[in-house]
Design brief:
Blueprint lengths: L5 E8 L5 E5 H4 L12 H7 L5 E3 L5 E3 L5 E7 L4 E10 L13 E20 L15 E3 L7 E17 L3 E9 L4
Antiparallel strand pairs: 1-5, 2-4, 2-7, 3-4, 5-6, 6-10, 7-9, 8-9, 9-10
């Protein structure tokens, strides 16, 4: 089982922190590691080895170890992949024009993502002024590699992989299953 061809949307880097996936409203009140009373360290202590970790009903975390992530989306927007580049040869390049990821159907998790969702570095607290734009994604101007905001309509999540001779990526595919 594979995804549709998913085209590259955005590339980001974190401070080697897990990537938080939550509503834009929840992201704007998240307390990152720069605060005395932070929820970030609770996540780090609880996250374990899961690729997609549910911290509470509002916050999920993509367990990136390298601190990089790329977003890919199918042309009809029914699939969104957040992937970590695990290894890349010097000659490797991100597949800008699209790639099919192998899907592990045994990892299906019900996960409704609706409306403006934020994908961001969990060590940060985002400014309240970060608002969705009419474009596909909006990037926080203070740290352009740390946050992406997308309008989402997904019902489930699956673990996915991509391997070629020069590139290895692992991630999560959010999929629209309900009509």
């Amino acid at each position: 089982m594979t995804t549709q061809v998913c085209e590259f949307v955005a590339y980001g880097e974190t401070e080697s922190a897990p990537l938080c996936v939550c509503s834009l409203a929840s992201a704007q009140v998240w307390q990152g590691a720069e605060h005395d009373e932070t929820r970030y360290w609770e996540v780090v202590e609880a996250i374990g080895q899961d690729l997609l970790f549910r911290f509470d009903t509002q916050h999920h975390f993509f367990n990136t170890e390298t601190g990089n992530f790329a977003l890919f989306r199918s042309a009809d927007a029914t699939e969104l992949v957040v992937a970590e580049v695990i290894t890349a040869e010097e000659s490797a390049a991100l597949p800008w024009r699209g790639v099919r990821f192998s899907v592990n159907p045994d990892t299906r998790t019900l996960l409704p993502l609706r409306g403006w969702m934020c994908f961001f570095d969990a060590t940060l607290t985002l400014p309240a002024s970060l608002l969705p734009q009419a474009a596909l994604y909006a990037v926080d101007k203070s740290a352009p590699w740390n946050a992406a905001v997308l309008d989402c309509r997904y019902d489930a999540a699956y673990e996915v992989t991509f391997r070629s001779d020069t590139l290895h990526m692992e991630g999560i595919c959010f999929r629209q299953e309900a009509i």
